[in-house]
């Protein structure tokens, strides 16, 4: 099991959350914290895999904890739990790399979906061998950046160097949320500029429109999954942001000239291909 902590200033809320998720097999609750300062100190020292965190906390609020964790590049994943449904709270939480925003009173299904998402992200981390990661990623990236249909000049957001801080923030958000429904409006709201100006800046800095870049990114990751795993194609679609398998297959074929299965068959199965 992975380790998780809960951060909320009300003890009954913590007990309620534990009771709601007690029969899951993803995470063991190893700590309870009632203020942001002590929680951040624990996260910095012990690096738990996941933290459930409230927005309103004494000493240091939840958004400030998320911001500090992001600035220090801490590995802990965050699920925000809040009694506030205001869009601004969720917006800021997601901007600081929270993976989910769950409202009180808790919905078991919503919590379980969020925990499953955290579990999948952690599994991806642990399934990579640090010794071989750099060499394998270099080879994979070369192959996938040469995939049919990928526009010239495309570079994944974690390797793309830009000068504008707003565009840097946009790329950080895209890298974390490309599997979700995102739009230039969301990026504009996150960076406090107008959608038209966000589109202009993004095109100037990256050479791509937002929609074109997002499609290239999703196809890039789809290519990697098709080449390097035996993941079923409908799961590949879901992993790169397409809930409708048939629409994904249509976009992939239009983009590359191949159906997803035909594209996969171009590459011989290897001993290193992961099965799902």
Please explain how this structure is put together:
The chain has a five-stranded parallel beta sheet with strand order 2-1-3-4-5, with helices on both faces. The chain contains 13 helices and five strands. The chain has two domains: about 1-125, Response regulator (Rossmann fold); about 135-265, Arc Repressor Mutant, subunit A (Orthogonal Bundle), CATH 1.10.10. Strand 1, helix 1 (about 10-20) and strand 2 (about 25-35) form a beta-alpha-beta unit. By secondary structure, the chain is α/β, with parallel strands linked by helices. The chain is globular. It is about 55% helix and about 10% strand. It has helices at about 10-20, 35-45, 60-70, 85-95, 110-125, 130-145, 165-175, 185-190, 195-205, 210-230, 235-240, 245-255, 260-265, and strands spanning about 1-5, 25-35, 50-55, 75-80, 100-105.
What is the structure about, briefly put?
The protein is α/β, with parallel strands linked by helices and 276 residues long. It is built from 13 helices and five strands.
Averaging pLDDT over every residue, what do you get?
84
- What's the Cα radius of gyration? 20 Å
- Can you tell me the CATH topology of the largest domain? Arc Repressor Mutant, subunit A
The CA-CA distance between the termini, in Å, is: 20 Å
The CATH superfamily of the largest domain turns out to be: Homeodomain-like
Widest sheet: strand ordering? 2-1-3-4-5
Shape: globular
Low-confidence stretches: 129-133
Number of strands: 5
Q: Give the helix tally.
A: 13
